[in-house]
Amino acid sequence: ILTVDLSRGEFREEVVPDEVYEKHLSGLGLAAYLLYDRIPRGADPLGPDNVLGFVSGLLTGTGSLFSGRWMVVGKSPLTGTWGDANCGGTFSPAIKRCGYDGIFFSGISEKPVYLFVDDHGPSLRDASHLWGKDAVLTEELLQKEYGPGARIAVIGPAGEKLSLISGICNDKGRLAARSGLGAVMGSKRLKAVVLAGKKRIRPFDQKAVHKLSRSCNRWV
Questions:
Q1: Which of 22, 107, 114, 164 could in theory staple to 7 by disulfide, Cβ–Cβ 3.0 to 4.6 A?
Q2: Do the Cβ atoms of 148 and 57 come closer than 8 Å?
Q3: Do the strands 190-195 and 113-118 form a parallel or antiparallel pair, or are they unpaired?
Q4: What confidence tens digit (pLDDT) does each residue in 46-60 have?
Q5: How does strand 70-75 pair with strand 10-13?
Q6: Side-chain-side CA neighbours of residue 11 (13 Å)
Q7: CA separation for the pair 133, 139 (Å, rounded)
Q8: Is the pTM of this model over 0.85?
């Protein structure tokens, strides 16, 4: 996983122990395990102690059916407890192609920023020129800069203004809409996450994945 401390502008890559995957799998299970451990009791959902995570599913990119969705997670400003939102599109495999099962943000940036990740690693870049722009326009501007292969999750003005019903957008309209997590992203002054990695996703047993997927397809 990749962890990003927005207050310090620091990155850390962490290897998750095998036993965590064996017990919790990936995606939502991995996110719940990490957030329970890392968000202190009583943390303000819109404060620096909340953790905002973007996670991909366990089988994403392996050729398995029904596995192309991603989750954003955090402490919900709507409920004061666990929050998650699910979304389709192209962002889920992009997390895996950067070499991660999840990207987790803590802290609050001093100014608007976005995260850019490619095969050379992560960097935080100034988003002041994007702040205030709507989600679709922001995505178009970032794709113009980084090319059509870049996959982008972004907030619009609602998230920036900490609306508790704001979501996180990708693919020009697909929305991770539940739990008010767009407001959490806005509270961290994180305008967007731009992923342009090209790593291959290698399942342990590709033949078994294809066999199970064909069997599932026939059953459906």
A1: 107
A2: no
A3: parallel
A4: 999 999 999 998 889
A5: unpaired
A6: 11
A7: 10
A8: yes
